[in-house]
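DOMAIN: structural biology
WANTED: fold as tokens
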Amino acid sequence: MKALISRNIPNIITMLRIAAVPLTVWLIMQDLLLYAFWVFVMAGISDALDGFIAKRFDMETELGKYLDPLADKALLVSIYISLGLEGYVASWFVILVVFRDIAIVVGAVLLETLTRSLTMQPLMVSKVNTVMQIILAAAVMANAGYDLTLNGSLDILMILTAVTTVVSGFAYAGTCIRRGSQLEEKNERRQ
């Protein structure tokens, strides 16, 4: 039992990050953005920590490869929906972020269904987009929580993040279409 727990320390940390999602949403909905900001910061630290432990101590698991990005997406999407509902982020931006993530998940499920082999490899533009989304979410919560005056800067950051969201969405769509075409070509050759 002890060996099983120690092997899964990164996954346990990831599950704690998933558990932080409803707390963060509740804090935002209660207009406690300073606390939401710090829970978000702790979630970010836990993300770095579980990745470091998994790689450094050879504790990577198949479950962790799926669970870690799921935890990140659950946190970011939930935060953006909450910030949008409370009026801290423009609704068009929330729709863009959520639609992109839903489209990526649907594309991944479709590819898995067709190919029976889904490899989870984020594109570089997607990593940039994730960083932009994290910075924007943290900045919005810090701005409201600490009563800063970053509004003009936040607008620029939101537009830049929207651009990376659109570009990464199209990049994933292109990857999905390319892999689907390769599958069709392979099936035609067999016939």
Summary: Helices lie at 2-7, 9-29, 33-56, 62-85, 91-115, 124-145, 151-190. The radius of gyration is 19 Å. The domain at 2-190 is CATH 1.20.120.1760 (Four Helix Bundle (Hemerythrin (Met), subunit A)).
